[in-house]
Amino acid sequence: MGQVHGVYVLTQNAQGLVVVDMHAAHERIMYEQLKDSLDDKVVAMQPLLIPVSFNADRIEVDTVNAELSSGSQTLRQLGFDIAVLSPTTLAVRAVPTLLQKADAVALARDVLRELSAYGASRVLTDQRNTLLGTMACHAAVRANRSLTIQEMNALLRDMEATERSGQCNHGRPTWFQVSMSDLDKMFMRGK
After folding, report:
1. How would you class 58 by CB atoms within 10 Å of its CB: exposed for 0-12, middle for 13-18, buried for 19 or more?
2. Which end of the chain, N or C, is less packed with Cβ atoms under 10 Å?
3. Is 49 helix (H, G, I), strand (E, B) or coil?
4. Which DSSP helix (H) or strand (E) runs through 12?
5. Measuring CA to CA, which residue among 166, 152, 161, 54 is closest to residue 112?
6. 28-72, pLDDT tens digit by residue?
């Protein structure tokens, strides 16, 4: 039906009004898609036409160097291609296709922070869901973004097809229902 302040999507079903937190819902959808891709060992990469270079700290550069020199494929398994350009500069050359609209630098920094803190093997095991949640958050639609009717409908259809779409990755609800009888009570209909 529409949006409220660029944050909530309003829709209806047979029971009444449904209010959807579009960021939280999209975050859950992206998280489940990333999780499924990683489980299938096929996180598709989107090469960037123009690599995005950024000033990196020593830990970020060391993390990429360690990843490259060890032969670990963790970054590639997660859908990233990051290169060292200099002792203080990194370049993001590819990102996961699902996250291609996200801020490549912020996304790379978060992934490198997790790799540095936990190591490649733990990032893909113990910290996997936390990392995927962080990655999904970067790609989810943001508040104050005006969605078209088609985008709102696509979000709702994706929610229907996504496991656990009733909660975001942080445990908050992604939608709630206001029944027709509750709406009638609010407006004192039938009195």
Report:
1. exposed
2. C
3. strand
4. strand 8-13
5. 54
6. 999 999 999 988 887 899 999 999 999 999 999 999 999 888 877
